[in-house]
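Q: Got a minute? One more chain.
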Amino acid sequence: MLKILVTDDIAKTGIEVLESMPGATVDVRTGLSESELLEAIADAHALVVRSQTTVTDKVIQAARNLRVIGRAGVGVDNIDLESATRHGVLVINAPDGNTIAAAEHTFAMMISLARHIPAANRDLLAGNWNRKRFVGVELRGKTLAILGMGRIGTEVAKRAKVFGMNVIGYDPFLTEERALSLGIVKASLDDAIAEADFITVHTPLTKETHHMIDAIRLQTLKRGVRIVNCARGGIIDELALCDALRTEQVAGAAIDVFESEPLRADHPLRSFDNVILTPHLGASTVEAQENVAIQVAEQIVRVLKDEPFDHAVNLPSLSADQKARLTPYLALAEKLGLFAAQLAQGAPSNIRVTYAGDASAPDGGYLTRTVLKGLLGFQYRGEINYVNALQFAEESGIRVQEVRETRGRVYTNEISISFVTDGGSHQLTGTLYSESGPRIVELDGYPIDMPSEGVLLFTRHKDQPGMIGRIGTFLGDAQVNIAGMQVGRRESGGEAIMLLAVDRSVSPDVIGQIASVDGILMVRAIEL
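A: Always. Here it is, folded:
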């Protein structure tokens, strides 16, 4: 008898799907303490959670029979993915179930903001009748900047077009071809927000997107812009937004997500009449809750029946032989994809992955999916997994090509990524050393040898005396220690590259200082 343990509230329809599986019992036990969870999961074959249950390494180790963990939603921050993968436990999510709900909530917030609906409602309930006080603006003819053109951003764009808005899209992986197909204009982040009458954000919260809209950027916006955030708290600097609201640089804001939730009672955002606040309701519709519950339940049933499944967040099931052969290369492939995402400037339109030697054996596309998971997942964390990576690339207008060769150009066994963006082209090659694991051995045609891990700083520069020393001085002044260095050049006095391994993250200010040095052609901070 298979046991399916459900430890968070999910829609009844999802429970019914689980209960329909022959030979399975469904044990719904919410609000468990850690000790109760450890006891309950000991004999469970599947675990279903939302965001309340934290699935730690300790919990996974306590599960003797666990095969799959299902998250009824998108984010899996509450699940130890590394531990699950290490113990052979599949983790699946439901990335599509709340897309429409989130897009509709965004639009509801935008319309409410434009027409002062919440403030007018409060005023009317207080016994007033102030029609002139609440004169709004129309959406038709206004410019909307959508920051993040994933599933939700795309749905918002479709609705904005119907309302007659001019839509500008920013996304590192938005190609001109895809923008054209959506009827929108592709732009850089700064250009998009500078043109906008309304701004809505739909990116994941990462180190790169944290405070993406900060005090400096708020001052570059049109005076009177209106801002909506139904994505993740922390993408917009809340205190800087309050300052911009006080000076009327920003005419209004509609916020559903916050840096710290629940929003504290004395938070300054609560003090503005032209701010609409909702308690993280983006996915809170009956339909969305049912969709994510049904979606994850159906996939769990398929996993337990050994049938094909979708939405795997970690590595799908492999045979013992496949796992033994592929596992070392999977780590290399994902690191190369992650490196490529941070090296790129502009959206990639073509990606070619070349496998050589042992890496070239047929693998059902696992390695290419893994490369794309690293490449696309850097921007769309939580949305990209091994199953949907190829489909996401196709929908984004990215052409993916696989090449298999008997022997590599640099080493016998290697993986090489070549890609083209609207900002140029790049090539990256890696291999495996039996003693030291994945290594980067070639970058844009320059031979190097560097572990594919940690914090790296990459520069392309003119090969001239003092260049390395000046970069080292900037890092030293910022208390960033250099742990390793690789340089490459083709000829003396021409162009050269440098890849530094450093002990901690390099701030944007330091990157800017290095970029301003005469002779620096390109600089990137890369974290693997």
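A: The radius of gyration is 25 Å.
Q: Perfect, thanks.
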